Amino acid sequence: MSNAPINALDFSVVRELRKQSGLTLEGLSEKSGLSISVLSKLERNQNLMEMETLFKLARAFNLAASDLLSLAESASAHLKNAEEYESGPFHFEKVSYQGIDCFYATADEGQSLKHPEAHGDELEICWVRKGMVRVEFPHEQHVLAAGQSVKFDAVLEHSYHVLENSELVIIHLLKEQRF
């Protein structure tokens, strides 16, 4: 169990972003318009960040301010419990985080699912862990054996047909920039 305060922001992530960008403190100072002392304090998590500082720093890393905040918030692990449910003949366990839904699904041979769960404007990955599944689209189909996967736009009409008792990992990834 973590002793970190709930909703604590850890801006020491700025150091990691700076290093990944190949910048020195001086370089980041020039790029962001923030002083080296402000940046140094942020990197040591010894300073609260004002909105203007957040926007300047985010722009320097080509990030949205909300993305930088999310990184600072994500400095510690976020634990969740899976939720279990049935959809047609499929048994699902699901965990969700911002922008990603992960499903572990099991189904018996001969079963089909025509309207898979929770589709929006996202990408979908189906990875067959055991068994064999046919994924059908209006103009194509793919038979996946254990260890194979397919990635597609989840807004496409599709269905899953279980050819052997199967275990699947299905991932929905929110599209960051559609157009």
Task: Describe the structure in your own words.
- The radius of gyration is 22 Å and the shape is elongated.
- Mean pLDDT is 86; it is low at 1-7.
- It has five helices and eight strands.
- Strands 1, 2, 3, 4, 5, 6, 7 and 8 form an eight-stranded antiparallel β-sheet that branches.
- The chain has helices at 13-20, 25-32, 36-43, 51-60, 65-73; strands at residues 83-87, 90-97, 100-107, 112-113, 122-137, 140-145, 149-153, 159-174.
- With 179 residues, the protein is an alpha+beta fold.
Summarize the structure.
The chain has 179 residues and is α+β, with helices and mostly antiparallel strands. The protein has helices at residues 13-20, 25-32, 36-43, 51-60, 65-73; strands at 83-87, 90-97, 100-107, 112-113, 122-137, 140-145, 149-153, 159-174.
Mean pLDDT, nearest integer?
86
* Shape type: elongated
Measured between the Cα atoms of the first and last residue, the distance is: 42 Å
Order of helices and strands: HHHHHEEEEEEEE
**Count, helices:** 5
| % residues in beta strands | 35-45%
- Helix share bin: 10-25%
Subunit arrangement of the protein: single chain
Poorly predicted regions are 1-7
Supply Rg.
22 Å
Tell me how many strands there are: 8
The class by helix and strand makeup works out as alpha+beta
Characterize the largest beta sheet: strand count, sense, and whether it forms a barrel: 8 strands, antiparallel
Outline the secondary-structure elements.
Layout: H1 13-20, H2 25-32, H3 36-43, H4 51-60, H5 65-73, E1 83-87, E2 90-97, E3 100-107, E4 112-113, E5 122-137, E6 140-145, E7 149-153, E8 159-174
Antiparallel strand pairs: 1-2, 2-3, 3-8, 4-8, 5-6, 5-7, 5-8
